Amino acid sequence: MPWDPDSGQTFGEYVRSKGVQVRPGGWTWTTRDQVTEGRNPAGERFKTVTDQLGNEVTERTDAKGRQRKDVHIHLR
Question: What is the Cα–Cα distance from 5 to 48, expressed in whole angstroms?
Fold first, then answer.
């Protein structure tokens, strides 16, 4: 039976009585980026972050400690 405003029950009470799941921390629209870390065959340490749209940011550090950042943006 759908919610009836004249029932004397608030909509929140109606939804809670139906057992709808509610997250304790609340719902969020933030996305989680995918992170990959490791060493490439040249011995450089790297960290690649890929966002939800497929854009990639790679940070590399070579054996001498020099740092580099590469950005690949996927245009659609």
Answer: 52
